[in-house]
């Protein structure tokens, strides 16, 4: 069994910064992909950023140049540094991982979500 714990989020003014983290724990053989998606009210869930086990990253067009994803492999944790935040970044942010468990099962897991509100 694998658990995800998200932290961070909250209220920030436009132009401000915020950091999110997502830690995976449990029976983990490997974490193939770790990343972040977001869902704003009335909109579909969209990609924010993902990082593969090989170190490559991919960002949604709307956050390129402002957000940075990173991983701490020793802690099975993924981070999202969000700078120059805009009101349109307001959403619930979800951590997503693709994990190979200790029993060699391939699972896609989602975190519980954390709310980011950008407002003055």
Order of helices and strands: EEEEEEEEEEE
Helix content: under 10%
What is the rounded Rg?
Answer: 14 Å
| C-alpha end-to-end distance | 41 Å
Task: Extract low-pLDDT stretches.
Answer: none
Number of helices: 0
The global form is: elongated
User: Which structural class fits the helix and strand makeup?
Assistant: mainly beta
Q: Give the rounded overall mean pLDDT.
A: 96
Major sheet summary line: 7 strands, mixed
Share in β-strands: over 45%
Number of strands: 11
Walk me through the structure:
The chain is an all-beta fold and 120 residues long. Helices cover 0% and strands 62% of the residues. Strands 2, 4, 5, 6, 9, 10 and 11 form a seven-stranded mixed beta sheet that branches. Strands 1-3-8-7 form a four-stranded antiparallel beta sheet, with no helix packed on it. A hairpin with a 4-residue loop joins strand 7 and strand 8.
Summarize the structure.
The protein has 120 residues and is mainly beta. The chain has strands at residues 2-8, 10-12, 18-26, 28-39, 46-52, 57-59, 67-72, 77-82, 91-101, 106-110, 114-118.
